[in-house]
């Protein structure tokens, strides 16, 4: 069965861009006769606003986008992330790191590399066990060891997890996948990102680990989300393979841009979408998805119309 999800962060109410992703994920599931879930991604607790989760759920309900199961909250699932990290550590695929962002910048500067706007410098592997580990410094975070060979193929949906593999120095780690909208994609994770964080220096769980564990635990088969998250996909596929988890199908939706050309987001002051007039909000969300205005005056009829249009597109 197709199972999809919408996973907003409660750092504010839904804005026009996040409603596009919510509508797309709902339509994708409904067009395939599947189940649609909502997961509140609140692991980054310092950025979460009180009551934002309930407002998001109300906005979705106003628009007729009601999940088929009770919503879940990542903040209640820490034991699952703990177990996943413990497995990676046991298999030699994760290690503690003492480096700050300044340490990483200095290490990269020594290699003649400097940061560019909006792009995080890849981690150079300073604290890898084979390089001496923490060098007597206290651990700050936990990272995935991208220098260890990860199985090239994910396991079957109901198959056993693969055994851990051995360290291979300087191994290329190119992940390829096919995005249902963007087409063939590829990234050498070791070069582009390096050993990425699984648990942060402040003790909070990193998005990459939490989303991979949750998608597998909830049986998610289809991930539909904004194009700004496409760059996360190779890291998540890598983690799925490291943990012996299935890889969903991915579709990344067009971004809604602000007047200055930047991505519309809560960080740049995007206004909450007004769902007191839900059909107007939904028509606005349908447009970036290439869907025509609904020829009906009610939400249920509009959603049925767009579901048929989405199904035709899938075929």
UniProtKB/TrEMBL annotation:
Xref: SUPFAM superfamilies: Nucleotidylyl transferase
- Which amino acid positions bind L-glutamate, per UniProt? 5-9, 41, 207, 225
Q: Give the GO cellular component terms, alphabetically.
A: cytosol
Query: What would you give as a GO molecular function for this chain, any one?
Result: glutamate-tRNA ligase activity
Which top EC class is given? ligase
* Annotated residues for binding of Zn(2+): 97, 99, 123, 127
Question: What binding details are noted for the cofactor?
Answer: Binds 1 zinc ion per subunit.
Entry-linked Pfam families: tRNA-synt_1c
Q: Does the keyword Protein biosynthesis apply?
A: yes
Name the EC number(s).
6.1.1.-
* Residue interval(s) of motif 'HIGH' region: 8-18
Which PANTHER family does this one have? GLUTAMATE--TRNA LIGASE, GLUTAMYL-Q TRNA(ASP) SYNTHETASE
**Similarity-based family:** Belongs to the class-I aminoacyl-tRNA synthetase family. GluQ subfamily.
Q: What does this protein do?
A: Catalyzes the tRNA-independent activation of glutamate in presence of ATP and the subsequent transfer of glutamate onto a tRNA(Asp). Glutamate is transferred on the 2-amino-5-(4,5-dihydroxy-2-cyclopenten-1-yl) moiety of the queuosine in the wobble position of the QUC anticodon.
* Protein name in the entry: Glutamyl-Q tRNA(Asp) synthetase
What organism, scientifically named, is this protein from? Ottowia oryzae
